[in-house]
Amino acid sequence: MDRTLLLPVMGAFAEFERPLILGRQREGVAAATRCLQRQPTLELA
């Protein structure tokens, strides 16, 4: 396959997938936060 075609196609897939990756990351962080529920180590006085 010609490189002039391959790079734009890969770039388009990357642009499409980026928000999906960020959404999965947010879901994972939220799940970990719910699961772990640590007490804060610093107290705000």
From TrEMBL:
Domain of life where this protein originates: Bacteria
PROSITE patterns: RECOMBINASES_3
Domain Resolvase/invertase-type recombinase catalytic: 1-36
GO molecular function: DNA binding; DNA strand exchange activity
InterPro entries for the chain: Resolv_N (IPR006119)
Identification of the protein by name: DNA invertase Pin-like site-specific DNA recombinase
